[in-house]
Amino acid sequence: MGDDSEWMKLPVDQKCEHKLWKARLSGYEEALKIFQKIKDEKSPEWSKFLGLIKKFVTDSNAVVQLKGLEAALVYVENAHVAGKTTGEVVSGVVSKVFNQPKAKAKELGIEICLMYIEIEKGEAVQEELLKGLDNKNPKIVVACIETLRKALSEFGSKIILLKPIIKVLPKLFESREKAVRDEAKLIAVEIYRWIRDALRPPLQNINSVQLKELEEEWVKLPTGAPKPSRFLRSQQELEAKLEQQQSAGGDAEGGGDDGDEVPQIDAYELLEAVEILSKLPKDFYDKIEAKKWQERKEALEAVEVLVKNPKLEAGDYADLVKALKKVVGKDTNVMLVALAAKCLTGLAVGLRKKFGQYAGHVVPTILEKFKEKKPQVVQALQEAIDAIFLTTTLQNISEDVLAVMDNKNPTIKQQTSLFIARSFRHCTASTLPKSLLKPFCAALLKHINDSAPEVRDAAFEALGTALKVVGEKAVNPFLADVDKLKLDKIKECSEKVELVHGKKAGLGADKKEFKPAPGRTAASGAAGDKDTKDISAPKPGPSKKAPATKAGGPPKKGKPAASGGAGGTGTKNKKGLETKEIVEPELSIEVCEEKASAVLPATCIQLLDSSNWKERLACMEEFQKAVELMDRTEMPCQALVRMLAKKPGWKETNFQVMQMKLHIVALIAQKGNFSKTSAQIVLDGLVDKIGDVKCGNNAKEAMTAIAEACMLPWTAEQVMSMAFSQKNPKNQSETLNWLSNAIKEFGFSGLNVKAFISNVKTALAATNPAVRTSAITLLGVMYLYVGPSLRMFFEDEKPALLSQIDAEFEKMQGQSPPAPTRGISKHSISGTDEGEDGDEPDEGGNDVVDLLPRTEISDKITSELVSKIGDKNWKIRKEGLDEVAGIINEAKFIQPNIGELPTALKGRLNDSNKILVQQTLNILQQLAVAMGPNIKQHVKNLGIPIITVLGDSKNNVRAAALATVNAWAEQTGMKEWLEGEDLSEELKKENPFLRQELLGWLAEKLPSLRSTPTDLILCVPHLYSCLEDRNGDVRKKAQDALPFFMMHLGYEKMAKATGKLKPTSKDQVLAMLEKAKANMPAKPAASAKAASKPMGGSAPAKFQPASAPVEDSVSSTVEPKPDPKKAKALGVSSKAKSAQGKKVPSKTSLKEDEDKSGPIFIVVPNGKEQRMKDEKGLKVLKWNFTTPRDEYIEQLKTQMSSCVAKWLQDEMFHSDFQHHNKALAVMVDHLESEKEGVIGCLDLILKWLTLRFFDTNTSVLMKALEYLKLLFTLLSEEEYHLTENEASSFIPYLILKVGEPKDVIRKDVRAILNRMCLVYPASKMFPFIMEGTKSKNSKQRAECLEELGCLVESYGMNVCQPTPGKALKEIAIHIGDRDNAVRNAALNTIVTVYNVHGDQVFKLIGTLSEKDMSMLEERIKRSAKRPSAAPIKQVEERPQRTQSINSNANMLRKGPAEDMSSKLNQARSMSGHPEAAQMVRREFQLDLDEIENDNGTVRCEMPELVQHKLDDIFEPVLIPEPKIRAVSPHFDDMHSNTASTINFIISQVASGDINTSIQALTQIDEVLRQEDKAEAMSGHIDQFLIATFMQLRLIYNTHMADEKLEKDEIIKLYSCIIGNMISLFQIESLAREASTGVLKDLMHGLITLMLDSRIEDLEEGQQVIRSVNLLVVKVLEKSDQTNILSALLVLLQDSLLATASSPKFSELVMKCLWRMVRLLPDTINSINLDRILLDIHIFMKVFPKEKLKQCKSEFPIRTLKTLLHTLCKLKGPKILDHLTMIDNKNESELEAHLCRMMKHSMDQTGSKSDKETEKGASRIDEKSSKAKVNDFLAEIFKKIGSKENTKEGLAELYEYKKKYSDADIEPFLKNSSQFFQSYVERGLRVIEMEREGKGRIPSSTGISPQTEVTCMSAPTSTVSSIGNTNGEEVGPSVYLERLKILRQRCGLDNTKQDDRPPLTSLLSKPAVPTVASSTDMLHSKLSQLRESREQHQHLDLDSHQTHSSGTTTTSSSSTANIDDLKKRLERIKSSRK
């Protein structure tokens, strides 16, 4: 017992494994109790026993094993994890339980197996049990069979797969063990119960005794369909329902179910396929051609034996079928014909759907062979054709059958009709759509009138069958003209018909569809009543559907309106739902008069033909009143219209009477039951009057009314034929106009396009232009409904006419047809619900294509041609293919019969010569277009082989195959492709290319399908194997396709299909399925039809413009009405939205919507920096890969989680591309509003976008590129610079996309690269792009090389990294590339460098092969013909660079942009012509007359430039787009071309060639001077200024030092630059665009120029410097005040820091600052003080007070103080609020200084307003008291004021100021005049210079800023306030005084040539020119004139100012020279000519 106690303590699971049986027994018992207690199936307890259950059932001790089995059973029943144990436990049961002698054990074992089946593990159980059947122990075999039998009995044949069991049955019947045989018999009986006779064929070979026994057992079985008695867990709710129903009495479900159950198993499925092709006799093909019929017979008998196999393996039977067909068609021995027919029957039966591809070839042959009379032949042929029919569809063979229907032989006609009748029996209402029924009915109706009775009977039978299948409603429209006797015969036949699909279908049709034939109700009252009662029995089905007949059916339904039977006057249907076709016999005139006199007043009838028009008019009025009052039922329409037509009828001469008459016709048509008979009486007259000026409108109204009564299609046809049978062109054109309008009003349904087209062609050929115009308008309207296929009819028109038609179509492009407003209400009230039409949404589309005249080409496909195509020599094969292409091309549209061509082409698809394969694919593409929808019948024999080509190893062949497949699918729809096993067979092939292409194709096509054939499930196992393919691309494509398969098949089916996979694979696949389930798109709504209804009854989807696929057409019609209610009202289910390519709603989307507010990017402080550190420190993966692996995506996801909104992140990382599109749309919307967030997350956004580059979906890629364009535009506006990290993780991937095959994408990528140069240096971009040139993709290489060329062209050689030499060597390698585009790009790039750099290029390139070098030299030579015009040439070669890819470029050129661009273009052209450069001399002259007459506006006309024809320059230019700030919207539209032109010209401003630069400046100046065009420069200002100061630098450093250069040239260039700048800075809006950095460089350049001593040595140098002076003032005044102030502060700081900088330079900078300080009171409000104070803070940080005091000059510190003082004075204490941009205020003394100043100004109350000058007010030493100081200063100023002591006074003041540097002399100056203040300041400066021994210095240094202002002549407000600063009036004496000084100064300027003119003297404008040596100086002189005149005007305008101002004198004094200048100008002009 000691042992017992040991194991008793152990836990249960250990007991179960104990070696003692007692311990195990106890363990099992306890386990059983535990299992029974656990209530939760998901409890963790279950998992503990997971590994032990097998031991429970396989225990070696029989007693213990029983207990174990009990426990195991409970476990399997209750544990959710039990499924995992299925395999091992069931195999344990089979091997260790079924052999036990105890019956109990066996029972428990069986129970366990059944329980596993119940928990959905049936397949695994069945697998183990089938393995058990191979066990040697018969006990086990018997138990396994018994288990299978019980399982089948309980669960039914849906759960237990019968095929594998049936397969082993014959073997079991042969067993030696009786027990096994008996058990086999029992299971065979059980199987028979489920599948009935399907079991017979597989068992036909067992022992006959056994078979007999079985037969006896089978007979005893009940006939009712069996039902499962036990259900799977997932079905148990169903079980519960069933029980309820049974308890309620009667198994209603049963009736419904047996339909499903019985046909569940098909015997065919249970059979093994046999391969027979290899078993054919070797000499079969020779024998079948033998001359002796006996040999032929032998061959056929051999085949007959083989095809008796009930299931044949798929293979290529084409040759065999061809041979048999030949025997059937041509063999003279009828016995052999019958034998061959039997063989075909066997093939068709054995192959089933796989035979479908051969059906088209054989059907016509068999049908034509029915001419044989022998019954055995006829019977064999009937069997053959019936068997063949089952392998294909009626649709596919309809063409062939219909062709035979016209045969003259009555037997053929009879047998064909009988075949049609038998075929119809296999159809249902959905497989026999109207489009198919119509041609058959038409053909059969001919036969019912045939002379041969057997033909008539067969036709009646066929029509009767059709009636039975689809119901009367569908057939009646086609039986409109059949008389009653025949109609009754058809009905009689229909009642006898037995349909294949069981009685049920027939009854359903009976119940639903039998109702009176329209138009017969009234004819036989009683019958009508009975019939109507019949309808009322079923639900309102028929009443709803009835109107469809009237709704005009789909287009070209002939005349659906003519659906009436014979006889009857046509009263309305009881409910008024349907207007019956009104059929009226033609009445004689007497009857009409009689009827009319009954309803019209007598006088009215008498006066109808009165000779007095007034009486006729009165008569008409009465007539009208009578008609208006008449009741519809009583109105004799025909009689009334006959009265109207009575003499004078339509020849009425009085227009008033005529108008009334026409109006009455309209009234009668509207109010009465107007028949076609009545219409025919009046239509002729109406057409005759339609062109009448006065009556035309009334005629049109009447016609519209008739169209409403008699349907538009009929009316239109009548009207058109009448109009074109007469000669009046006015009538013809008006008829066409009426029809255009009518189509819009009535919609297009039912119209006979073909009839119109012939009339339209006649109209197009008319001589009268109005007729042609109307015809083209009508075509435009038809285009709306028919779409592009309409154009096919007019291909052969004259080009001029065709272009007009195309223009009209272009207008209609994108418009959707209007909803019909007429012709609806009357004919159908139920919203045009088109009954059965739903099955064929594209029927109408086919219809239009059907109208095309198709050529029969089968006779051209001769046997010689076919043998050519199959020849051994590839050249001959090629010839054959060329011929075929020629035949198809010539025929344009062909009939589907193409003879032997398919087999010939099929052979070429696997040709060893790939070129021929491609050619074949092209032919097949042509074929699809030429044959149209009829290509369907060739899908199986030609389409599927095309798919095989998708597995080709060559990329281009695959692409061609894909294009071909798409072209075919466009014509055929997808159904044909998905039917049968062909597609799954293709997917089965383990070819990675084939798999990925095919899956990609399916993923593209499946989402748009509404339904798919069930055969799609066959592809699923192969799809699963693709999910685990070795090839990554295949796996990815399979994953992409998974959701779309699921969308059609449902998750359950897909999950079930995983059953056969290995356990590991299964788990993986199931996980993927779960994932796919979440992303599964909704099925596209069945709304193609609904959407097209509003467009015109039933304009089908294909009628949409641009033949959009169905979904697009839905979206195009639904889009304008986004309101979901309205969309529904249109009959478009709200699901239709999903078809618009928008996000397909997932289930959770509703919840998500709530939290989508708030920012999408969260700004995390230093987040980006931290990420960069992590990446540098290798804490995270570096963003570098060839394809993104999962870990990268996960990493990015994690990084994003902190800074991207959760919902957006879900969209961004969703597996469905539509979510990515949505995310991008959101990001675009938030771009502007969340700039900071975007910049904060920029690195992550760019990384995410790189992932999108690896997506295959183009729409995502396009959207991503669109976003990038916007993003980089924003970044450049924000002046952001990409970090290295951002660039390196983004640019390489962007460059990959530059090699995309799609043009649009490449253009976008180039545009983005362009914009990137604005945020990332071009020199750093260069290496990335260089790397791109190493790609394998030739497009990418070419594009990258072009991009390099553009960079060099735009940014010069400096961009070439690492060195120009290395870079060029790399580029030169590509000259020898095998791809032409790459070679060209490389050559162009080097030519670009050559143009920039000259011959040095050859040194840099190094050695090249002879061939490459000669190519390069040739290219350079070619470009040299237009030196430096290379860029123009490149424009032609690479239009990719366009910034606006706009198809309407021509449209954009209109308006001002046009002449603007042309002038700029002219400029660009001239840059290439040195001779033109000589013209520059007069570029900067002005027209003096213009100036004289000008009243203030500065407009200058440029002289005419040499004109060049250079239209090609309109092509966009290849300069990277400059940084564009917000530009006016007008700019975008008008200047898209101009912008690039300006870029180009600006790039030339900085050219090293003086002439080029001058040319460019000339152009820009011209633009700037014309107000309306100046705005074109907006957005280019910085770019222009940079180019300008680069040129200034170039002149300063290079040109001036160049001895060879003519100095005149340099002066000329300077004049141009300065002139340009002055023009620019006069336009304030443009001047303000200059940014700080650019202004700083510009000022640096200008001041350097003013100090350039080399210039003043030149004879015209003074003039240049003077002009620069003027320009500086302009820059200071007109620029953005914050930018210029900031620029000057930085410039001052730099100049003080630079040791090399001259003190003069800093001094001039400070003068500019003083000037700015003067302007501050006016500009303070427009200045960004925070930025200025930040600059001052930085200045003071670099130069603390101490350091500033050490400077040689005291000016810097004074300047700074003055500036701060002025700012304090203007802003007051508020100034301290503007220190926000300063991080650490303690780094400089700024804050302290401002506080001191504020305090000081508060102390000196009252004196605040007096401080008007810049002299910094600091208090005087405390030593001298204020009183003393004031007295002393007063004394000094008195001296200065007196004439004698001026000098002495000034000297004293100077001494005093030197002693007390902080002394404030302001109070003494403030009351004096402006002039006096200037005088004092200047005097002090002069003394200062003299004292410090500097000798005579430029007088500017002695002039204070005030003086400068005085002399300033810019038209600013300062001028007008000079001299009266304190508001006091100044007398003229002051002005005279000033004038004296001005004159004196002018004189001084004249005499002192050797001194450099000072800044101030330049700022003022000397009126008298010094030296007039060169005409080039005219510009500056005239600009002075202009300035002085402007000032003059300003002074005049100022009311405070007296007229004797000094400046006026200046102006007048200068006028003296104008005549002189004019003469000179004239001379120059004449000399130039």
Extract low-pLDDT stretches. 250-263, 503-580, 825-846, 1087-1154, 1427-1483, 1488-1492, 1494-1501, 1521-1536, 1806-1824, 1895-1929, 1949-1978, 1995-2013
Distance between the termini: 136 Å
Query: How many β-strands, per DSSP?
Result: 0
Main beta sheet: none
In round numbers, the mean pLDDT is 75
Class derived from helix and strand content: mainly alpha
How many alpha or pi helices?
107
- DSSP strand (E) fraction? under 5%
Radius of gyration: 49 Å
Q: Give the proportion of residues in helices.
A: 55-70%
3D shape = globular
Write the layout of secondary structure elements.
Layout: H1 2-8, H2 12-16, H3 21-37, H4 44-48, H5 53-57, H6 62-78, H7 86-97, H8 103-132, H9 138-155, H10 162-173, H11 178-195, H12 208-220, H13 236-247, H14 252-261, H15 267-270, H16 284-287, H17 293-307, H18 318-330, H19 334-351, H20 356-369, H21 375-391, H22 394-405, H23 410-426, H24 434-447, H25 453-470, H26 472-475, H27 484-496, H28 502-513, H29 525-536, H30 541-545, H31 589-599, H32 602-607, H33 613-629, H34 637-645, H35 655-671, H36 676-689, H37 696-710, H38 712-725, H39 729-746, H40 753-764, H41 769-786, H42 799-812, H43 843-850, H44 863-869, H45 874-891, H46 901-908, H47 914-931, H48 939-949, H49 955-972, H50 975-978, H51 982-988, H52 992-1005, H53 1020-1027, H54 1032-1056, H55 1063-1079, H56 1088-1092, H57 1110-1118, H58 1124-1129, H59 1149-1153, H60 1167-1176, H61 1190-1201, H62 1206-1212, H63 1217-1229, H64 1235-1240, H65 1242-1253, H66 1258-1277, H67 1284-1288, H68 1291-1297, H69 1303-1316, H70 1322-1332, H71 1338-1355, H72 1364-1373, H73 1380-1397, H74 1400-1405, H75 1410-1424, H76 1430-1437, H77 1449-1452, H78 1456-1470, H79 1474-1477, H80 1488-1493, ...
